[in-house]
């Protein structure tokens, strides 16, 4: 039976104990000696209990405490209660860890947890298999000492984990892995590694397929176009045939434009050219573009103004930048109703070198803006077809800019016009010597 601890009862018991000795002392006429003997006895009893407590805590296999009474009973009960509570907590935690481990082993991806000092805290079985980690031998070792691919090390140290990277596997160069790092808690990182070999092979196949098909279609189309031109030149063909030939020629031109744009897109996608190696003379390139724009503008009669900083040259890939700028300028000419005003600027800005094309055409509604750079996305299909556009122009611009670490900004108000612009980082500007 367990009684709650009472200081009063305990003090009363002590008092009674000492009183018995005091009575004996009074009877034997040596009160002090008797009380001292009682205190020494009390001390010995407590020492005995301390000894038992120590033996129970450190040497006994028994969980339940020895049976005692008084204050010591409360101490034993208290310790026993704490032990039981801790044991239950440990059991619960153990179960939780076990379930978490089972869950993480069931993950189809390799997972590694890394602490603030880049030391490995934990990894699952797939991480051991795919990344060649040893467990528990590699616990605490720096992850960047074990995965040595330069691209991974750069990604790991850059601290910008918004996008994953694709890198060949450290154990098998035929495999491609996608590494994604997610920061969590106090400076901890979770690395998830997915095998994307099949996906990247399919992506490569898709790119090759588009490039090959476009290339193969080019020759037959040139032949058809050649014959169509010869047949159209004959003045004596009957009017129906003449109309048919005209339409066929216009459609083959559209197909040729489409194929050229597909090839440009494939080339940019496959390009591994570095943007820091060659200087692009943008002022000269824009002068040529101005001449081409004026030729294209003959039917439309827009006023086109070019404001170009003649000193502003940048590092980049000339063919790609020309393609991006001409697409933006030609789009403004095509999609602005006749007699409009178009302004092209190439100037320094706070962030770098800024190219912008501003027109006062019909503008683009906000809900189209998010999708407008997708392949074959058109705001007004019938009108785009009339302009002979392939639907790939802004897609090409997007790819070129992403290759130059930039992006297309579009500002538009329906009925007032659009502004298409991009900024090349100041790092890319070639400062005049
Ligand atoms: P397309 O070859 O059809 O011109 P783009 O990718 O170049 O394809 O453009 C996509 C769509 O964006 C066009 O069909 C057109 O509707 C719209 N667009 C592009 N530039 C402008 C502009 N300056 N003003 C209005 N609409 C534009």
UniProtKB/TrEMBL annotation:
One of its GO terms (biological process) is phosphate ion transport. SMART domains: HATPase_c, HisKA. PROSITE patterns: HIS_KIN. Its main location: membrane. GO terms for molecular function: ATP binding; phosphoprotein phosphatase activity; phosphorelay sensor kinase activity. InterPro entries: BphY/WalK/GraS-like (IPR050351), HATPase_C_sf (IPR036890), HATPase_dom (IPR003594), His_kinase_dom (IPR005467), HisK_dim/P_dom (IPR003661), HisK_dim/P_sf (IPR036097), PAS-like_dom_sf (IPR035965), PhoR_N (IPR021766). It is found in: Cell membrane. Residues 212-428 form the Histidine kinase domain. It catalyses: ATP + protein L-histidine = ADP + protein N-phospho-L-histidine. Its EC number is 2.7.13.3. Keywords: ATP-binding, Cell membrane, Kinase, Membrane, Nucleotide-binding, Phosphate transport, Phosphoprotein, Transferase, Transmembrane, Transmembrane helix, Transport, Two-component regulatory system. GO terms for cellular component: plasma membrane. SUPFAM superfamilies: ATPase domain of HSP90 chaperone/DNA topoisomerase II/histidine kinase (SSF55874), Homodimeric domain of signal transducing histidine kinase (SSF47384), PYP-like sensor domain (PAS domain) (SSF55785). The chain crosses the membrane at residues 7-26, 32-51. Member of the two-component regulatory system PhoR/PhoB involved in the phosphate regulon genes expression. PhoR may function as a membrane-associated protein kinase that phosphorylates PhoB in response to environmental signals. NCBIfam families: phoR_proteo, PRK11006.1. PANTHER family: PHOSPHATE REGULON SENSOR PROTEIN PHOR. This is Phosphate regulon sensor protein PhoR. It comes from Alteromonas aestuariivivens.
């Amino acid at each position: 039976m367990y009684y709650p601890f009472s200081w009063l009862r305990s003090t009363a018991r002590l008092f009674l104990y000492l009183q018995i000795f005091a009575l004996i002392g009074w009877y034997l006429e040596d009160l002090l000696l008797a009380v001292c003997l009682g205190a020494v006895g009390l001390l010995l009893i407590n020492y005995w209990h301390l000894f038992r407590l120590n033996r129970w805590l450190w040497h006994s296999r028994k969980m339940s405490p020895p049976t005692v009474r008084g204050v010591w009973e409360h101490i034993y009960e208290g310790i026993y209660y704490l032990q039981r509570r801790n044991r239950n907590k440990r059991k619960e935690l153990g179960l939780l860890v076990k379930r978490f481990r089972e869950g993480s082993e069931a993950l189809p991806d390799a997972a590694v947890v890394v602490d603030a000092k880049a030391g490995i805290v934990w990894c699952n079985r797939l991480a051991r298999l795919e990344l060649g980690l040893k467990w528990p031998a590699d616990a605490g070792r720096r992850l960047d000492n074990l995965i040595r691919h330069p691209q991974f090390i750069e990604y790991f140290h850059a601290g910008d984990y918004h996008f994953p990277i694709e890198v060949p596997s450290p154990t098998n160069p035929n495999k491609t892995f996608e590494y994604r790092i997610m920061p969590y808690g106090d400076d901890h990182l979770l690395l998830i590694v997915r095998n994307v070999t099949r996906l990247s092979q399919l992506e490569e196949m898709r790119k090759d397929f588009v490039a090959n098909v476009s290339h193969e279609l080019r020759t037959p189309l040139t032949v058809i176009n050649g014959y169509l031109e010869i047949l159209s030149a004959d003045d004596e063909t009957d009017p129906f045939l003449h109309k048919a030939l005209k339409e066929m020629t216009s459609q083959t031109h559209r197909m040729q434009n489409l194929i050229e744009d597909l090839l440009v897109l494939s080339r940019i996608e496959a390009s591994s050219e570095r943007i820091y190696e060659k200087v692009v003379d943008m002022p000269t390139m824009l002068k040529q573009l101005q001449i081409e724009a004026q030729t294209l503008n003959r039917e439309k009669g827009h006023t086109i103004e070019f404001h170009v900083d003649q000193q502003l040259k940048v590092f980049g890939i000339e063919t790609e930048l020309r393609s991006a700028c001409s697409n933006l300028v030609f789009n403004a000419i095509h999609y602005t109703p006749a007699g409009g005003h178009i302004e092209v600027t190439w100037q320094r800005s706070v962030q770098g070198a800024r190219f912008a094309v501003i027109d006062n055409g019909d503008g683009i509604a906000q809900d189209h803006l998010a999708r407008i750079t997708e392949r074959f996305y058109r705001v007004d299909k019938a009108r785009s077809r009339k302009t002979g556009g392939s639907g790939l122009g802004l897609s090409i611009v997007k790819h070129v800019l992403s290759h130059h670490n930039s992006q297309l900004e579009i500002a538009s108000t329906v009925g007032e016009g659009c502004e298409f612009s991009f900024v090349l980082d100041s790092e890319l500007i070639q400062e005049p010597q």
